[in-house]
Amino acid sequence: MLNIYTSLTDVMKDDRFIKDVDAFFGSNVLHDDAFTRMVLIRIEKCTEYKDNVFIDRSGIGMYSSFLSTGTKILLSISYYPEYIFNGIEMGYNAAQLLSYVSNGSIYIDNRDFVLEEESSTKRVVCVDGVECSIEEANDILGG
Amino acid sequence: MLRYSVSNMEIEIDVNNKIYILGQDSSEGKTYLYQLLRSLQQRPEYKNDLLLITYNSNIGTDVIVKLIQEFSGKLIMMDRVDLYWCSELRDCLEEHISCPILLDLKSNDYIMRLSATPVIFEWSGNKMEVKKYANDV
After folding, report:
1. Cβ of A90 and B106 within 8 Å?
2. By CB distance 3.0 to 4.6 Å, which of A11, A135, B60, B102 could disulfide with B77?
3. What is the pLDDT of residues A81-135, one digit of tens each?
4. Residue B120 burial (CB < 10 Å; 0-12/13-18/19+)?
5. Predicted ipTM?
6. How far apart are CA A132 and CA A79, in angstroms?
7. Cβ B126 vs Cβ B7: under 8 Å
8. Three-state SS for A117?
9. Cβ separation of B25 and A91 shorter than 8 Å?
10. Which of B26, B107, B108 sits opposite A70 (nearest CB)?
């Protein structure tokens, strides 16, 4: 389940909190899975990747350290569910894809994004310890 | 209007001496613009024109504030500002508007505490443009 935290004061006290996701991610290997593919296509307009290299929207091969911070945050949450990642740098287009993370944790403040809902499945997320539907989460988060 | 040419890219920055917030989607090219300006800064003729700051966990906000206060060039761009944000930085930026200041700042909470204007950020092919809205005088 995706855990969303909205209090910076609380997560700052947690040893699992990763403040600088860009530095944490480095040149991480990109997993060959459906979530990674979806994020790279939707955010980076990337159609091909392997190991830690992806082809960017201009057709240029780049190391994964050059991915946008929003993409790095989404992938880090999915790859390392044992940590809580700082989502403050996520753009709207990345934040709305959070609902596709099957297991992981993020801190994000209130902002004008709407978590996307898959039509085929009714996902449950956890906002500040309270389990809720995507629709309810959007109400809580102010989207 | 500031015009630069670097790494086969044309950059046009047509804004006022104000604080601007760049677009709030990921992967629009903000960090790419930052990197282009950083490579431009390596040239001696642009060395003192640009102040480029990106988050680095080894540098405290006090150093950043001092850099901004002492800067007298043509453009300030700050990438990943959310991670540096504090009231001292906000005050420093608002007091130092002698040139355009471009911020990659996402948090609505922080933006609301700053007198800043959104800016149009576009790039196509080998041209990147930062433009003010028509009613931004």
Report:
1. yes
2. B102
3. 999 999 999 988 999 999 999 999 999 986 677 898 876 677 889 999 999 999 8
4. middle
5. 0.84
6. 23
7. no
8. coil
9. yes
10. B26
